[in-house]
Amino acid sequence: MSTAATATPARRRPVWVTVAVSGAFGLFYAYVVWNAVTLLVAQASGPLGLNALGWAVLGLAIVFPIVAFGVAFAVGARRAIGEFALVMLVGLAVVAVLWVNVLAYAYTYGAQLLG
C-alpha cells in the first residue's frame, strides 16, 4: 500500500474564517487609506498647495496599503489561520511604518514652509 492511499486528506478551514480575518485586518488597512486621502485633500487644498513630490508621496500613501493588503492576502491565504493573521499583521506593520514616514514628511515640509 502506498503512503498516498493511507494518508488522510487535509481539512480545509471554512471560507468564513478567512473572510472574517481578512475583513478585520482590511478595516485597519482601509483606515490608513482613508487617512491618506484626508491628508492629501487637506494638503492640496491648503494655502501652500502641493508640488510634484508631495503628490507622489501622498499618492503612494494611498496606493501602498491596498497593494500591501493584496500581497499579504496572496501570501497568507493558503496557510493556517494563525499564520494568515500573522502575515496580515506584518503587512499592516509595514503600512504603519510608511504612514509614519509620510506624516513626518508632511509635517516637516509644512513646518519648513511656514516657519
Outline of the structure:
It comes from Microbacterium invictum. The protein has 115 residues and is mainly α.
| Order of SSEs | HHHH
State the low-pLDDT regions, or none: none
Give the termini distance in whole angstroms. 80 Å
Mean pLDDT across every amino acid position: 87
The helix-and-strand class reads mainly alpha
Tally the beta strands.
0
Overall geometric form? elongated
The profile of the biggest β sheet is: none
Total of helices: 4
Q: Supply Rg.
A: 20 Å
Estimate percent helicity.
over 70%
Features:
115 residues, transmembrane helix, membrane, 81% helix, Bacitracin resistance protein, transmembrane, mainly alpha, 4 helices
Provide an overview of this structure:
With 115 residues, the protein is mostly helical. The chain has a domain at 52-115. The chain has four helices and no strands. It has helices at 3-6, 15-44, 52-76, 81-114. The longest helix is centred in the last third of the chain and has 34 residues, at 81-114. It is elongated, with a radius of gyration of 20 Å. The N and C termini lie far apart (80 Å). The mean pLDDT is 87.
List the topology elements.
Blueprint: H1 3-6, H2 15-44, H3 52-76, H4 81-114
Helix pairs in contact: 2-3, 2-4, 3-4
